[in-house]
Amino acid sequence: MSYIPVEKDKIRKIISLIACTAITLTCLNASAFSTQAASSSEIRSQINELQKERSKIQNEMEELKKQHQENQNEIGALIEKKNECILIQYLVYKSKPLDQQSRGFVLY
């Protein structure tokens, strides 16, 4: 598996999303345990909110995975094109007579 750079904005989004979720969970956890008089309906509504938030995060993660795969495919195609260009450049260079090969073959 090759390393593909991810845009800094995407990384920041993911980190801030994880941080917000952790803070929310901590606050909800603390409030649930600090008040002994919390009713089961209040706890149920908090659980439902957390499940909705979890679902949103999972959807965003899936979207990021799709984008990552698309980027990998695009980079692979670009590398193939680059390799084809290098091969063509080499073949053109080699097809010239020796007296016309003054510059030499350079890989870019």
How would you explain this protein's 3D organization?
This protein has two helices and no strands. With 108 residues, the chain is an all-alpha fold. It is rod-shaped, with a radius of gyration of 27 Å. It is 77% helix and 0% strand.
Number of strands: 0
Beta-strand percentage?
A: under 5%
Determine the structural class based on helices, strands and strand pairing.
Answer: mainly alpha
**Low-confidence stretches at least 5 residues in length (pLDDT < 50)?**
none
Name the overall outline: rod-shaped
Report the helical percentage: over 70%
Largest sheet: none
Distance N terminus to C terminus?
24 Å
Which value, in Å, is the CA radius of gyration?
27 Å
- Helix run count: 2
Q: What's the helix-strand series?
A: HH
Mean pLDDT: 80
Please write out the topology.
Layout (H helix, E strand, L loop, with lengths): L7 H27 L5 H56 L13
Helix pairs in contact: 1-2
Labels describing this entry:
108 residues, mainly alpha, 77% helix
